Amino acid sequence: MLARRVGESSGAASYHLRQLAKHGFIEEDTERGTARERWWRPVSGTSRLPVTEMRKSPATRAALDIVVGEFRALRMDHLQHWWATNERWPERWTKAAESSTSHLRLTPSELGQMARELNDVIVEWATRTEERVQSGYVHQGDEPWADVAVLVDAFPLGDPEVQM
Predict the structure, then answer these.
(1) Using CB atoms within 10 A of its CB, is residue 57 exposed (0-12), middle (13-18) or buried (19+)?
(2) Does the global pTM surpass 0.90?
(3) What pLDDT score was predicted for residue 162?
(4) String of DSSP letters for the chain
(5) So what's the pLDDT on residue 87?
(6) What is the tens place of the pLDDT at every residue in 147-157?
(7) Which of 9, 27, 35, 137 has the fewest beta carbons closer than 10 A?
């Protein structure tokens, strides 16, 4: 089905799905499909790319630009979908959701430390809640759970030449 949807052969789609699984982006959803029809789902947690290393080679730089472009488009799609549908969510979800922008004055080492600490918090929550996906349950006590996107961007602002 995916191969038809993206206009690829089933062999090419299968290869790319296996590569995504090999690198920890997706995993097989064994509760859906059959041996002939495999289903995949994103892996819970954080996806991080070795951007600095990938920028060193023209081949990996081109691949990085494609992947990051797709990540950015997906992030924008998630955000736009949330804003288009949030009034239809129960109030407990809209009160729990957060959208904020903060401007800080940090050094490069402070930015790196903050980014690592934010990632550590997200990884901890992913680990803590992973059993929900594995067990298939949909409620925690009296509260339902949903897939949640955590979008964190932390980067310097302004002209790089002026910041040197």
Answers:
(1) exposed
(2) no
(3) 66
(4) -HHHHHT--HHHHHHHHHHHHHTTSEEEEEEEE-SSSEEEEEPSS-----HHHHTTSHHHHHHHHHHHHHHHHHHHHHHHHHHHHGGGS-HHHHHH-----------HHHHHHHHHHHHHHHHHHHHHHHHHHHH---EETTEE-------------S-HHHH-
(5) 92
(6) 888 888 887 87
(7) 35
Task: Find all residues with CB under 8 Å of 46, minimum gap 6, and list them.
Answer: 119, 122, 123, 126
The tokens for 11 are 């062999």
* Cα–Cα distance for residue pair 82/60, rounded to 1 Å: 32
Q: Which residues, 6+ apart, have CB-to-CB distance to 105 below 8 Å?
A: none
User: For the chain, what is the mean pLDDT?
Assistant: 84
> Cα separation of 74 and 50, whole Å?
19
Q: How far apart are CA 125 and CA 113, in angstroms?
A: 19
* Angle of CA points 5, 43, 145, to nearest 5°: 100
Residue with tokens 């990051």: 68
Average pLDDT over residues 62-71: 85
- For residue range 97-138, what is the model confidence (pLDDT) as tens digits? 988 889 999 999 999 999 999 989 998 988 888 777 677 666
